[in-house]
Backbone:
């Protein structure tokens, strides 16, 4: 399917508290990664552009001018970028920011939601074809396994540690922070149930499920990297990001 009628919506407005003190200077999506030390957000934009998506909406707030001064209207990256700014109108959280962008007329098409701290070489063509085939209202990219960032212990009834596994991979379904959303969902009076301050994954998705919307999982088998914390950021290697470096 053609992706010309798709907008990529990138939540990139958080304060990045887990990245202090670095985010006291720059917003988290602008943290440099990879061989060429490009911002995470630039890697995301260039990966998405490879699949023909050329219209972006950045949902910004904290130190948003840093992002704007780097990307501008997107022309030097061969894309068009609009900005929805978190100000004093009450819309907060990833869900509230998406809803505000819709209410402001910045989202009128099918939307690719991609969190601004997630790097994953997802085949976007395959994702959208799946979304269309199952006729979903929302398709979430899901991994079958998740590596926890802490050690996990097994204890007996006397609290004696019998086993420890350092940062194991758990056999659970984990959402990546990437999905395809039909903008028609946002026509609903969502504020009546969730207000203006709510999370996309934690609040809007459960709301959709309860209301009978068709929410599907797209199983992604590849590697993915959550650059949401300083600990995970420090463990990223150039080899991990080689496929993104090729797109630069």
Residues:
């Amino acid at each position: 399917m053609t992706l010309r009628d798709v907008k990529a919506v990138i939540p990139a407005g958080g304060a990045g508290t887990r990245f202090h003190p670095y985010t006291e200077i720059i917003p988290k999506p602008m943290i440099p990664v990879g061989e060429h030390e490009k911002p995470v957000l630039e890697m995301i934009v260039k990966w998405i552009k490879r699949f023909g998506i050329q219209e972006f909406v950045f949902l910004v707030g904290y130190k948003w001018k840093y992002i704007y001064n780097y990307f501008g209207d997107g022309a030097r990256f061969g894309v068009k970028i609009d900005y929805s700014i978190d100000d004093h109108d009450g819309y907060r959280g990833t869900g509230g920011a998406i809803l505000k962008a819709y209410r402001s007329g910045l989202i009128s098409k099918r939307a690719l939601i991609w969190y601004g701290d997630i790097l994953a070489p997802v085949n976007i063509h395959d994702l959208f074809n799946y979304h269309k085939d199952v006729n979903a209202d929302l398709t979430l990219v899901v991994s079958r396994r998740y590596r926890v960032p802490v050690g996990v212990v097994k204890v007996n009834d006397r609290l004696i540690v019998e086993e420890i596994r350092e940062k194991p991979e758990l056999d659970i379904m984990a959402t990546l922070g990437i999905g395809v959303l039909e903008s028609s969902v946002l026509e609903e009076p969502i504020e009546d149930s969730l207000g203006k301050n709510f999370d996309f994954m934690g609040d809007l998705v459960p709301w959709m499920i309860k209301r009978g919307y068709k929410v599907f999982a797209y199983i992604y088998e590849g590697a993915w990297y959550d650059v949401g914390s300083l600990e995970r950021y420090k463990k990223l290697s150039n080899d991990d990001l080689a496929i993104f470096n090729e797109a630069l």
In short: The first strand starts at residue 6 and ends at 11. The mean pLDDT is 87. The radius of gyration is 19 Å.
